[in-house]
Design goal:
single chain, alpha/beta, about 375 residues, globular, binds pyridoxal-5'-phosphate, 4-stranded mixed sheet, 4-stranded parallel sheet, Aspartate Aminotransferase, domain 2, Aspartate Aminotransferase, domain 1
Length: about 375
């Protein structure tokens, strides 16, 4: 089976893991702080906290805002569940807004209505949580402006956008806090893990405390509130350190994979590829193809044809407002997310995808679409 997005690990990961194990650094060790320092440098932030997942990073961020039931968070409807579940963990209500047709991120034009719809339901909006989808930065500038006008912070879900930039700044820049994922299918992985970053020292100190079971400094572990077990282990951090060293090459490789698909398939009727917005370096974490009504087959028929050949492909994220669990959640905006879900197909995008395998995938797609 050719997977959608496989982890790539090599000799450097093995060496750093072996070093960690030889030193007895299994759960705790200097690798964790080193990984945090390196990631803070990459993202241009004062502070970084390594955690067990991207979802955990976002959850900590929302907990830091003291988000409560009866309060709302504005989220893009086109995203992965990990970007929304933390809102529910805090007992709050997500308000889903449509996305921009170029960046596929939260459409700033939908924000005023999202605030109004929340207000009409008696919900006070406490945060905006946009996402940088498939490796591309959202339109963070206008989102920050509108949120600031309303007096609410922006927490950026950059889980899919490690290595991506907007106007030369790494994904996540500008937001009060940003979250990243090192899940096995992302561009760099720790097997499972995440990172929370911010420039606010007090917030990050509290995040670190909450991520380690909220223990007050007493030998008997004094607790006056309840926290989480969200810390990342040293072995995972060792893998992350090795992965970070090759991030630039990984972005270049994923972009080359995307360009090969685009060059080989764009002439086919009804075929388009995910755009790259102005000022952006799209990491092309996943190569996404769009099949319009004049394409020979539907995205699902193409997916099944690829599956029959042992090739994994997947639809674009199903919009959250269409998910059964969120059928009653407030939503605003048009149908951009629904259209991307209907027409999109994510193609194998691994850094380890061989030229021969990609040529075979392209030949199968051409066969189906000609
Ligand atoms: C992967 C992902 C997450 C969650 O990250 P995990 O590390 O899997 O918990 C959150 N949001 C988006 C958009 C993601 O793709």
């Amino acid at each position: 089976m050719i997977p959608l997005s496989a982890p790539e690990v090599g000799a450097r990961e093995q060496a750093l893991v072996a070093e960690a194990l030889a030193a007895g650094d299994v759960a705790m060790g200097p690798q964790v702080a080193a990984f945090e320092t390196a990631f803070a440098a990459l993202t241009g932030r004062a502070h970084a906290l390594a955690v067990s997942s991207g979802t955990a990073a976002l959850h900590l961020a929302l907990r830091l805002l003291d988000l409560k039931p009866g309060e709302a968070v504005i989220c893009p409807t086109l995203t992965f569940m990990g970007g929304v579940a933390p809102v529910i963990y805090q007992g709050a209500t997500p308000v889903f807004a449509d996305v921009d047709p170029v960046t596929w991120g939260l459409d700033p034009a939908c924000l005023p209505e999202a605030f109004d719809v929340a207000g009409a339901r008696g919900l006070s909006v406490r945060a905006v949580v946009p996402a940088d989808l498939y490796g591309q930065c959202c339109d963070i500038g206008p989102i920050l402006d509108i949120a600031a006008d309303r007096g609410v912070p922006v927490i950026l879900d950059s889980a899919e956008a490690v290595g991506a930039t907007l106007n030369g700044r790494h994904a996540g820049a500008g937001a009060l806090m940003a979250a990243y994922s090192f899940n096995g299918n992302k561009i760099i992985t720790t097997g499972g893990g995440g990172m929370l970053v911010s420039d606010d020292a007090a917030l990050m100190e509290r995040a670190r405390y909450l991520s380690t079971a909220a223990r007050r400094p007493a030998v008997h572990y004094e607790h006056d509130e309840v926290g989480y077990n969200y810390r990342l282990g040293a072995v995972a951090a060792a893998i992350g350190l090795a992965q970070l060293e090759t991030l630039e090459a990984r972005v270049a490789r994923r972009r080359a994979v995307f360009e090969s698909y685009r060059a080989a398939l764009s002439d086919l009727p009804g075929v388009r590829f995910a755009p790259e917005g102005p000022g952006r370096l799209h990491s092309r974490w996943l190569s996404v193809m769009l099949l319009g009504p004049d394409a020979r087959v539907t995205p699902d028929a193409l997916r099944l044809a690829l599956h029959a050949e042992g090739i994994e492909s997947r639809p674009v994220w199903k919009p959250m407002h269409l998910q059964p669990v969120f059928q009653d959640a407030p939503r605003v905006g048009g149908a951009v997310a629904e259209s991307l879900f209907a027409h999109g197909l994510c193609l194998p995008s691994s850094t380890t995808l061989t030229e021969a395998d990609q040529a075979r995938i392209i030949a199968i797609i051409r066969g189906e679409l000609t």
